[in-house]
Amino acid sequence: MDDMSQLPDQPGNRRAEARFIILAVAAGILTGTVGSFFHLVIDKLLRWPEVLAHHLDGAVLVAAAAVITMCITLASVYIVRRYAPEAGGSGVQEIEGAMSNLRTVHWRRVLPVKFLTGIAALSSGLVLGREGPTIHIGASLSAAITGFFKVSDVERRGLLGAGAAAGLACAFNAPLAAVLFIIEETHSQFPYTFRTYMGVIAAAFFSTVMTEVIGGTAPDFSMSVPAPALALLPAFVLLGCVLGAVGVSLNAALMAVSGFVIRMHKHVPFLMPALIGLAVGAMFILFPRAVTGGENVIVMMAREHLALSALLGLAVLRYISMVASYSTGTPGGIFAPMLALAICIGLAFGTSLEGLLPAGTAVPLAFGIAAMGGLFSASVRAPIVGVALTLELTGAYTMTMPLIATCLTANLIAQWLGGHPIYEQLLERTLAQAGVHPERMPKKRSGTGIA
């Protein structure tokens, strides 16, 4: 901890702590407000295929949608590459780099580029999540605050973490998971002191307050399932094994395909984003559940009972479309698409068990919910966040024990298979591209997020 945090009874220390908390609260309020309107605009714009369908149909409709998504993708990629290259992708790795003093948050250019191109990319149908942009927006707003008020280096880094937590809390209406994300995922970079820790909690809380005032109070993916019997816990462990392997594969695919697109851009600029945009736009009409961030897909999947073949087919499509969309380089996160992919896998797993166990023993939705936390844990390697995020999102607190079993197993399997956390890999590549010497890179962490 810093020296001031060791002296809680000194008036000057109390004033400094109060000042920092006020700045964190301001970051939370700003992030919750900006992030909520960011989400509302995307929700409205995502209806454009319905409007287009009123005027066109058949092959013409598919072609028009493909061209629209392609144009939006190309415009977003161009603006990002031209004005704020660090605004591409999720942004989480940029914040981790900034908290390690290896990257700089250029908030004056990141904020407008991330906000506008993020809206464009996410409403175009690309399979990207809203949480990445809101995390980056929250940290950028914190960086703006530190630019107007004199703060120490520890306080600056602490406010970046507070802004990131506020962004995640806003994206999923999940303040506890947001605080745990900073503790577990950014543990190597975040400066832990009494005031910075309280600042993260305050920012996440007030961001969630603003989110609920503007967008509503219910969990984003409200679901209800009876508590699975303890005898089923081995099945959730087996599901965790499957998800551990899928998570390692997904991370490898994200890194390999995005790296390929970066290399291709040097030879044929914008070719891959154009092709991916065309494909996603066509799928927006032909297979709408295979595209977009997946928030609506998760809700629909929870309510319907699809055949095993349909669930597996949708999982394959969403895996491919997620990897391809992220590789374009537009702003967008991976959490929401990962959760949508996971529920497909979990429902397929649960559906297959229905044919092997006595009637009523296995509830496919229970496995779908558990898979959401499990795949997150395998990819991001933050199992406690995976449990908390899934519980806050779904409100299915009867799933606590199965979630712990699934997330623990998925994290262990991913570690044993030699996988690395996705944001660690993204940060290493970002720093390597910026010419940062390997010794200055943050130390590799174990699969639990603890050094």
From TrEMBL:
CDD domains: EriC (cd01031). It is a multi-pass membrane protein. It is found in: Membrane. This is CIC family chloride channel protein. The chain crosses the membrane at residues 20-40, 60-80, 111-129, 159-183, 195-217, 229-262, 268-287, 308-328, 334-353, 365-384. Its main location: membrane. Keywords: Chloride, Ion transport, Membrane, Transmembrane, Transmembrane helix, Transport. Pfam families: Voltage_CLC.
